[in-house]
Design brief:
By secondary structure, the chain is mostly beta strands. It has 2 domains: 20-197, Jelly Rolls; 200-285, Immunoglobulin-like. 8% of the residues lie in helices and 44% in strands. The chain has 2 helices and 19 strands. The radius of gyration is 21 Å and the shape is elongated.
Length: 286
């Protein structure tokens, strides 16, 4: 009986959960330099894309954050328009890109950090930095003032191989609202999240070309796929965006069986790579 309750809960969750996919995140989970790499997201971002601080000291990842650790750098003095936090993400196959983040400046009595930032993006290394609408941020010595919550990025950031995003200083004023940022002034960043929707056009075009059964599936049983177009790969992600199963498909027939013995009960997203297109479908394991 408990399994049936679990199925109902998971189905309801699937209906109400934000349909967006986690593309990349930096949650600073270990407090080590390894945290410079994205610790969640899709293949192409997770463990490959890097958080940087440009024009400052080397990042210290072992500082107190919003919940856990945060990335911190100093030497933000004279940084107006020149010093910034930066990430890169790929958004290929995704639209409606949204960004969240938190920042904190140093104690205004001891190490006042930069107060004024804005968000900008550029496409690829040769792109031009462009302001993100509504991307102005005021940063004080706490984590709530600077909270960027699901800010929608411009359409130019959709479905591209490389998007650089930066939090750049827009003045030399420190968070004490009186003096310029000093050499010892600190700036922290934490909980960077980038989400996107699987391209609606791709989903509609291929909605009847992939049939998954059974769904829900009992943990340990196989998932069967009936496919009516060439398939390059199948990848399964948990609801945090972590890749938990990958199958590189070669010369596939019209039917495929995926072994789910490594999956725990829960909701997952199955991503298909077919002819350069990405299609996503929810699956439930109980």
């Amino acid at each position: 009986m408990k399994k049936y309750y679990l199925i109902i809960v998971l189905i309801c969750l699937a209906q109400v959960i934000d349909a967006q996919t986690l593309l990349a995140k930096w949650s600073i989970p270990t407090g080590t330099f390894a945290d410079s790499l994205a610790d969640g997201g899709i293949t192409g971002n997770i463990s490959t894309k890097v958080l940087k601080a440009v024009g400052t000291t080397v990042i210290d990842f072992n500082k107190n954050g919003y919940a856990g650790k945060a990335a911190q750098a100093t030497q933000w003095d004279n940084g107006n328009g020149a010093k910034y936090w930066q990430i890169e993400v790929t958004t290929t196959g995704y639209t409606n890109i949204k960004l969240s983040s938190r920042q904190q400046s140093g104690n205004p009595l001891t190490n006042p950090g930069p107060r004024d930032f804005k968000l900008q993006y550029k496409l690829g290394t040769a792109g031009t930095w462009t302001d993100v609408p509504s991307g102005t941020i005021q940063v004080l010595n706490e984590w709530t003032t600077s909270y960027v919550n699901n800010l929608v990025l411009p359409a130019a950031c959709e479905n591209v191989t490389s998007v650089f995003i930066r939090w750049v200083m827009t003045s030399n004023m420190s968070d004490d609202n009186t003096n310029d940022v000093l050499l010892t002034g600190t700036s922290k960043i934490d909980d960077i999240l980038v989400y996107g929707d699987v391209s609606a056009g791709i989903q509609q075009e291929n909605v009847n070309l992939f049939n998954i059964y059974p769904n829900p599936v009992i943990a340990g049983n196989a998932i069967n796929l009936s496919i009516e177009m060439p398939l390059k790969s199948v990848e399964i992600f948990d609801i945090t965006g972590k890749s938990v199963l990958f199958n590189d498909i070669q010369n596939i027939d019209n039917n495929l069986m995926i072994d789910t013995r490594s999956l725990k009960p829960g909701m997952y997203f199955m991503k298909f790579n077919s002819e350069g297109k990405i299609i996503s479908k929810k699956i439930i394991v109980y």
